[in-house]
Specification:
The chain is an alpha+beta fold. It contains 26 helices and 28 strands. The protein folds into 4 domains: about 150 residues, GAF domain (Beta-Lactamase); about 100 residues, Beta-Lactamase; about 160 residues, Reverse transcriptase/Diguanylate cyclase domain (Alpha-Beta Plaits, 2-Layer Sandwich), CATH 3.30.70.270; about 260 residues, TIM Barrel (Alpha-Beta Barrel).
Length: about 750
């Protein structure tokens, strides 16, 4: 049986084999996708097929026996990858492409087939997600969306595999480069040490001149420096002829002065040997005085070319960025200091542009550090192309660059250059058929208007850059003295928060979680509130800026844990059946270390069981370099009996992979999906998919932001386990929780009627 071949077959096969996934170990995530797909579509078989030159290999398979794959001629995937759209075959017996296929006329007697092409890069389909069964049927529109979501999960897993391989290669490359650099550094140091010893101890080449007769004599070392045979007769004319004219004049002036004063001298001069090679020579000269008159001049000639070059290389390495070869922070400050001194003398302007790339971390996290390095090199090239030869571009570190405009004619030139840079960065950058964003944000300062010393200009440029990023990124903002006030406000807020923590002004408020099936309160979420002495009770929106400070974030988390376990112990002593309490844990708390020990110690001191506490995390804690520490911490807590909830589910990155990699007992459906669940079919489909996903994986689901009876009814009808929101109660201080529990009516709550909270308020 013949099969169709895409026009880009060679490129497609190259993409498949470059991924190097055919021989990789089985993936529990991909197997889980196949199992989930079968259950969601009530079909007996699902597989992930990768189409090679003449065979289809199953990367994951559920319900299609123990086979490793099929021939390409009999695979439905051979037709699926011909188009970027999903292939749906309602009845294979009626389709001339498949009615004679061995899997249609024989086991498993395929009648209905769904094939969704898998491509990491547009147009390069390497395989497909296949779902099939023995009964003909049609595919509903909402089912099509689910297939696309499942396909995206597979693509994310393949990209994760690709990024993992790239990271391993990068690590190996970095180890090799580091070893080579160390070896080169040791060799450079050895040569420099040897050269220094030679300079102090060795007679590289000696010469002597009889002042009276002008007779000159050389040692063999001098002949080697000149590149002349030892048979050549040395004369003053020959000796000086190998120096350029100006160097020759300089040496003569020094020598005449020495003859007149008897003083020794040492100078470095350019030199051209007999082979035409340009060298750098160090000449030293001393005089022998007889009867007060110079009788003999003698000295040492040394070729210092290599040592000078080594010094220049070391200076360059110490003052330039290794990746982009741009000046580094130290050299930039020196150049800025020189430019400011020149501007003070001339009355001109100096501009400082601080450039920070937007979403650079996403490039590193998704495509690997080699893509990030390529992007940084391209950004450096575009920045240099956007300024004049008199200006300087430097890399300060990470994704931060600085542009020094050393000779501006007027103060507005800084913003003009900044806009030119933004335009250059806005152009896409292609890396391995992937379009990367070079966009950046810029903070602009101009001397003398915004400062007259390097530290002030750089500080104010950083303030302007912060404003540019806060305003949405991708723009240039010139420094305004009023920005300093905003920065001071942030500093003052941090100081006021520290004082508030010291004075006990931060308290947890508690919002109940309600069972949608029974109407009973099953637990609470602890939400931090600030009882400000003048402004009253403040929510996180009034002090969220302090969470950018990792130390304050950790301190706030520790205070929340301490106060929450205290309140739980008091409710227990009163005989309140409050279920459990969930607290949010941030990335800095994991990075700070010893989170499991702190949590378990707090529960033990309060006399509480681990079943009383739930840890809520968002997917941001799973990203970055501390993933392994997060995973280990969550596993320890989960094994101890503490439940783990994944907050804001569906709004982050690669959620399904996180459900497989981390111990998750509950997933919380973000309020952004619940808010329009009655009117937005996309939000409704996402909510149903998350609920079905939770049911398939045995994970409880909690809907946030439930405000109406119809929202609760929809969630209950679709199998959501729990809900929280203003429909049931706003967040309450700990003192009001016992009364809420005592007056709660599960029957009323299960029907979405106003709760006992009305009486409490």
């Amino acid at each position: 049986m013949s099969f169709p071949i895409p026009d880009n077959e060679a490129e497609r096969l190259a993409e498949l084999h470059a991924l190097d996934i055919l021989n990789s170990p089985p993936s529990a995530v991909l197997d889980g996708v196949c199992v989930l797909a079968r259950k969601m579509f009530n079909l007996p078989s699902a597989c992930i097929g990768l189409v090679d030159r003449d065979r289809q290999w199953f990367k994951a398979n559920s319900g299609f026996g123990q086979v490793e794959g099929t021939s390409r001629a009999h695979s439905f995937s051979a037709w699926t990858l011909m188009d970027n759209e999903m292939l749906v075959v309602p009845d294979a017996r009626d389709d001339p492409r498949f009615r004679d296929n061995i899997y249609v006329v024989g086991d498993p007697h395929i009648r209905f087939y769904i094939g969704s092409p898998i491509a990491l890069r547009p147009g390069l389909n390497i395989g497909s997600l296949c779902l099939f069964g023995p009964e003909p049927r049609e595919l509903a529109p909402d089912e099509r969306e689910i297939v696309l979501h499942l396909t995206q999960i597979i693509v994310d897993q393949f990209r994760l595999h690709e990024a993992t391989r790239r990271t391993k290669r990068e690590l190996e490359h970095r180890r090799t480069s580091q070893s080579l650099l160390e070896m080169q550094s040791r060799e450079l140091w050895r040569r420099q040490t040897l050269l220094a010893q030679t300079e102090r101890l060795a007679k590289v080449g000696g010469w002597e001149l009889d002042v009276a007769t002008r007779r000159l004599s050389w040692s063999d070392g001098v002949y080697r420096i000149y590149g002349l045979p030892p048979t050549s007769e040395p004369t003053e004319e020959l000796a000086l002829a190998h120096f350029p004219l100006e160097a020759r004049r300089h040496f003569r002036r020094k020598f005449v002065h020495a003859l007149r004063t008897g003083e020794a001298f040492e100078i470095e001069l350019p030199f051209v040997n007999a082979q035409g090679q340009h060298r750098l020579i160090r000449q030293s000269c001393e005089l022998e005085i007889e009867d007060g008159v110079p009788a003999r001049a003698f000295g040492i000639m040394q070729d210092v070319t290599e040592r000078k070059q080594a010094e220049q290389r070391m200076w360059h390495m110490a003052n330039h960025d290794a990746l982009t070869d741009l000046p580094n922070r130290g050299l930039m400050r020196d150049k800025l200091d020189i430019a400011l001194r020149r501007a003070r003398r001339s009355g001109g302007y100096v501009g400082v542009l601080l450039v920070d790339l937007d979403q650079f971390k996403d490039v590193n996290d998704t495509l690997g550090h080699d893509a990030g390095d390529a992007l940084l090199i391209e950004v450096a090239r575009r920045l240099m192309a956007s300024v004049s030869e008199l200006d300087t571009v430097a890399r300060l570190g990470g994704d931060e660059f600085i542009v020094l405009l050393s000779r501006m004619e007027n103060a507005d030139d800084g913003m003009i250059v900044a806009q030119r840079i933004l335009a250059a960065l806005s152009l896409p950058f292609e890396y391995r058929r992937t379009s990367l964003s070079c966009r950046g944000s810029i903070g602009v300062t101009v001397a003398p208007d915004h400062g007259t010393d390097p530290s002030t200009l750089l500080k104010n440029a950083d303030i302007a850059l912060y404003r540019a990023k806060s305003a949405g990124r991708g723009i240039a903002v010139a420094y305004d003295p009023r920005m300093q006030k905003a920065t001071e406000n942030r500093v003052q807020l941090a100081a006021r928060v520290r004082l508030g923590l010291k004075n006990g002004e931060f308290q947890p408020f508690y919002q109940p979680k309600v069972s949608l099936s029974t109407g009973a309160i099953v637990g609470f979420e602890a939400l931090l509130r600030w009882r400000h002495p003048r402004r009253g009770v403040l929510g996180p929106q009034d002090f969220s800026a302090i969470f950018e400070d990792p130390h304050l974030s950790v301190e706030m988390g520790e205070r929340l844990l301490q106060l929450t376990t205290r309140d739980m112990a008091q409710w227990t002593a009163l005989g309140c059946d409050y279920g459990h309490v969930a607290i949010n844990v941030s990335s800095p708390e994991f990075a700070h270390g010893e989170l499991p020990e702190r949590v378990l110690t707090a529960l033990d001191l309060a006399g509480l069981g681990t079943e009383r506490l739930t840890i809520e995390v968002t997917e941001t804690v799973f990203l970055g370099r501390g993933t392994e520490m997060v995973r280990q911490s969550l596993q320890i807590l989960n094994q101890a009996g503490i439940r783990i909830a994944l907050d804001d589910f569906g709004t982050g990155f690669a959620s399904l992979s996180h459900l497989k990699q981390f111990p998750v007992d509950r997933i919380k459906i973000d309020r952004s999906f619940v808010h329009d669940i009655e009117h937005d079919i996309d939000d409704a489909a996402i909510v149903r998919a998350v609920i079905n996903l939770g049911q398939s994986l045995g994970i409880e689901t909690v809907a946030e932001g439930v405000e109406t009876f119809s929202q609760a009814s929809y969630l209950r009808a679709n199998g959501c386990d729990y809900a929280q929101g203003f429909l049931y109660s706003k967040a309450l201080p700990a003192s009001r929780v016992p009364a809420l529990l005592k007056g709660w009516s599960p029957e009323l709550a299960s029907y979405g009627a106003p709760g006992p909270l009305d009486a409490l308020m």
